Amino acid sequence: MNAVLSRRAVGLAVGAFVLLVVVIQLLPFYVALTTSLKPKTDLSSQWSFPLSEPFWGNFVTAVTDGGILRAMGNSVLVASVSTVLVCVIGAFAAYPLARRPTAYNRGILAINVGLMMVPALSILVPLYSMLAQMGALNTYWGVILVMVATSLPISIFLYASFMRSLPISVEEAAMIDGANIFQTLWLVVIPMLKPVTATVGILTGVGVWNEYALSGYILTSPETRTIAPAIASFFSMQSSNLPAAAAASLLAVIPVVIAYLFLQKYFVRGLVGAEK
């Protein structure tokens, strides 16, 4: 009897903790929603909804003055191309590291893990100088190059970890049937990488979509800037427009939520496979 009560108490405690975490995670969205529905002159608490009718002008301001739709289009382009490149390059680079555990490959994988620990802002000055010399500032290909380079280490790590959990007998059977290494990789291994590819795709896509630290310096033109710099444009030394920024943030999160809802089962399977 005591054991049953103890298990119930533990279950209730875990459920309460999970509920608390969910509430804490949803609080920023609640505040953003209440703020976006009030005019700039409304000085009431951000925790309360507007007392009168909701003010939708902030969403209009986000679209017209902030150019949020153009910024979302730029983010879709940068995130899509970056994600595809990271998935393709990461899978091909991880295959020999996973299937040929030589001392050299183990060293390369260790260096790759080390690169995951390097803060991106620590290389901002030489990176900016190099991009300026290449004429890559305020260009899509320049920011895509940077996003791919900074996202590849985690991609290679996840792909290599997932590939090590796959049975090698399937690849050996394909080679016995006459397939070369490239055919084996493309026709046998790649189709089995759907879960981890979804994981890498979501992590890369969301990371690029939300990235501000580097893109804020690389993309300064209103025509090329992405979501985060566009939202930051509502704040300046002279003035700020918090309600419009909140409205722009809510608009920016919609594509990410939709993508995750469709890919969440693959995301979890990819993470579980990478931990094996």
TrEMBL record:
<feature type="transmembrane region" description="Helical">
    <location>
        <begin position="140"/>
        <end position="162"/>
    </location>
</feature>
<dbReference type="GO" id="GO:0005886">
    <property type="term" value="C:plasma membrane"/>
</dbReference>
<feature type="transmembrane region" description="Helical">
    <location>
        <begin position="76"/>
        <end position="95"/>
    </location>
</feature>
<dbReference type="Pfam" id="PF00528">
    <property type="entry name" value="BPD_transp_1"/>
</dbReference>
<keyword id="KW-1003">Cell membrane</keyword>
<dbReference type="InterPro" id="IPR000515">
    <property type="entry name" value="MetI-like"/>
</dbReference>
<feature type="transmembrane region" description="Helical">
    <location>
        <begin position="242"/>
        <end position="263"/>
    </location>
</feature>
<comment type="similarity">
    <text>Belongs to the binding-protein-dependent transport system permease family.</text>
</comment>
<dbReference type="GO" id="GO:0055085">
    <property type="term" value="P:transmembrane transport"/>
</dbReference>
<keyword id="KW-0472">Membrane</keyword>
<protein>
    <submittedName>
        <fullName>Carbohydrate ABC transporter permease</fullName>
    </submittedName>
</protein>
<dbReference type="InterPro" id="IPR035906">
    <property type="entry name" value="MetI-like_sf"/>
</dbReference>
<feature type="domain" description="ABC transmembrane type-1">
    <location>
        <begin position="72"/>
        <end position="263"/>
    </location>
</feature>
<feature type="transmembrane region" description="Helical">
    <location>
        <begin position="107"/>
        <end position="128"/>
    </location>
</feature>
<feature type="transmembrane region" description="Helical">
    <location>
        <begin position="12"/>
        <end position="33"/>
    </location>
</feature>
<keyword id="KW-0813">Transport</keyword>
<keyword id="KW-1133">Transmembrane helix</keyword>
<keyword id="KW-0812">Transmembrane</keyword>
